[in-house]
Design brief:
The protein is mainly β. Helices cover 0% and strands 20% of the residues. It has a domain of 40 residues. It is built from no helices and 3 strands. A 3-stranded antiparallel sheet has the order 2-1-3, with no helix packed on it. The radius of gyration is 19 Å and the shape is elongated.
Length: 71
């Protein structure tokens, strides 16, 4: 089941909800209103071409892991 981010139209609360499908009716956990709006959520990814060395996970101290040997 995917997780989506919502905002309540009544109280303004922003929350995440695990839903069976993208069309499921979601109620606000704060005020119980069913007037909610699905938000566009950003996600993080790494291309390996820039960023700090610590952001590439264990065993990739140089940030070059998986680069395919390109220079």
């Amino acid at each position: 089941m995917p997780i989506f981010e919502y905002q309540c139209a009544d109280c303004g609360a922003i929350f995440e909800e695990l839903v069976p499908n993208s069309e499921a009716k979601v109620t606000c956990p704060k005020c119980q209103s069913s007037e909610t709006k699905k938000l566009f959520s950003m996600f993080a990814s790494s291309s390996g071409s820039s960023g700090s060395a610590g952001s590439f996970g264990p065993g990739c101290s140089t940030g070059g892991c998986g680069s395919g040997g390109f220079s």
